[in-house]
Hints:
The protein has helices spanning 3-6, 39-48, 61-69, 78-85, 87-96, 119-123, 147-158, 213-229, 263-266, 271-279, 308-313, 342-356, and strands at residues 14-17, 30-33, 104-107, 128-131, 141-142, 163-166, 173-181, 187-189, 193-198, 201-207, 234-243, 246-253, 293-300, 318-321, 331-339. By secondary structure, the chain is α+β, with helices and mostly antiparallel strands. It has three domains: 2-85, Rossmann fold; 103-166, ATP-grasp fold, A domain (Dna Ligase, domain 1); 173-356, ATP-grasp fold, B domain (D-amino Acid Aminotransferase, Chain A, domain 1, 2-Layer Sandwich), CATH 3.30.470.20. The strands form three sheets. Strands 7, 8, 9, 10, 11, 12, 13, 14 and 15 form a nine-stranded antiparallel β-sheet that branches. A four-stranded antiparallel β-sheet has the order 3-6-4-5, with helices on both faces. Strand 7 and strand 8 form a beta hairpin. Helix 3 (61-69) runs antiparallel to helix 4. The longest helix is centred in the middle third of the chain and has 17 residues, at 213-229. The structure holds adenosine-5'-diphosphate.
Amino acid sequence: MMGDEAHAVGVELTVLAATPSDPASRSxxxxxxxxxxxxxxxxxxxxxxxVVTFDHELVDLELLARLEALGTxxxxxxSTLRFSVDKAFQRTDFAAADLPVPHHVILRHExxxxxxASWSQRFGSPPVLKASRGGxxxxxxxxxxxxxxxxxxxxxxxxxxxxxxxxxxxxxAEVAQLxxxxxxxxxxxxxxxxxxxxxxxxVEVRRPVDIDAVEHAFARALAERIAEHVGLVxxxxxxxxxxxxxxxxxxxxxxxxxxxHWTIEGAATSQFANHLRAVSGQDLGSPExxxxxxxxxxxxxxxxxxxxxxxxxxxxVVVHDYAKEWRPGRKxxxxxxxGTDVAQLHVRAWESARAYGTxxxxx
Length: 363
Ligand code: ADP
């Protein structure tokens, strides 16, 4: 989707794709085939471009740092990307900077497991356990039923790397704040959105968000502060938990994010255009919404494919087909509806996504 915007913002795009048929290569000017964590492939990419940027987080930070030391310009930089790749680092750094995150402990060694003792007594429920690195779409996040199970799970996860154990918070909602920051420090903030999860995966994004003006302003202020704090260049989504105690930061995505796909049709400048503008050193475009409401529904493969045609026939929706091979559970596309009445847009977007072949539950 970044490729669709590149020419309009004057960027020549070279994609490092895992396979020649990778959908990301469809709209690129040049394609290199290789893995994002392979040194030789990254060196070829760095040699062919002025700036390296990212559309996923499965990157090797140490490798990127080595390339940066040799002169490769990564935007965002490897030290910024660490805030999204390494959950233990993010939680520790943010807590120290007085940014609101859930109560947590970092488990690095067997002896740290002692910190899980009588967790439920202290926090009211067993901890949520998160692999510090490598998890996405809910993989690597475990919700033990009691403290004994938490201990067993944590020990098992620890054998594969650092673990974040954190308080299981009461979720009134989850919201995401998309923000872009230029090389020169210009910041633009998009309208806040609600994200709806099913089985750890985002299934729907909608706006406007039904929270009070104070929390709205707080989300905006926090996102701006985080953008400065992490040295952002590009687009970032800050995912928040809305809790009875207020907003808590969950995680950062340091790239165009699923919660911002609605901006393709729904905002004056899409997240992809602003990401490319930012990383190529240009001024940013307006993040203003074009309509009062928007709904985006992800198409996540059900057991059998549906009909793209039938999905497109639903009135008032735009269907984005990622041209990926059908596989149950895989994100295959998304549907966006923009307008004034969020309830009506919700019905239309889900009708289209279902026709296309998603069987996730709406919330
Ligand atoms: P991932 O990196 O795989 O997206 P997250 O840390 O965002 O994982 O967790 C996935 C989902 O699990 C969240 O969107 C939220 O619904 C739930 N979750 C995560 N952490 C907590 C928590 N501390 N308390 C309650 N629910 C949580």
